[in-house]
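Review this:
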Amino acid sequence: MALGRTGTLLLLAAMLTGLPALVIATDIARYAKITTNENAEAALVLGAAVLGDVPSPVFEERLRHAADLYRQGRVTRIVLTGGRSPEDELTEAEAGRRWLVDYGIPADAILMEDRSRTTLENFVFSAPLLAENGIATVLVVSDPIHMRRAAEIAERTNIAALPSPTRTTRYRTLEAQLPFLLRETWLMAQYLLLGR
């Protein structure tokens, strides 16, 4: 059965958009397994949702991982990122700071960037804070599937960063991981094409 001109064009369009998306998704999944054993001057924790005035379970896993890096002596500072959503009482950075202090991390080891609303802004707004505090290297802390885009943004914003994904992600099942992977594929493609 012949596809006809319209069918052929639709098939070609699907192939042209589907193949790059598959390549990006595969790269994201591959990179999610990479973690560094190196030390850095700080852990840069990418913000995540706050539920009122407490970190969401996803954000809490990132904070716990950063605290572990600090306690292991792999970093000497923790940099928290994230502004405030209209429905929240606190910025992501402030909610994270309170959680870390309650978890036993010294307040003077914590720096905050509290204006960002996106991953790109996490890095752009953190860069001056890192420079002001003499921090040249960071371990980026986020969920494994988020790490590929974070690494690309870090490189483009001239932040010397190594991946340190959470070991205990809240996205454990395929049912939870697939939407996250699809979202990251879309966001990564958008960032590569548009730089935002």
Notes: The mean pLDDT is 87.
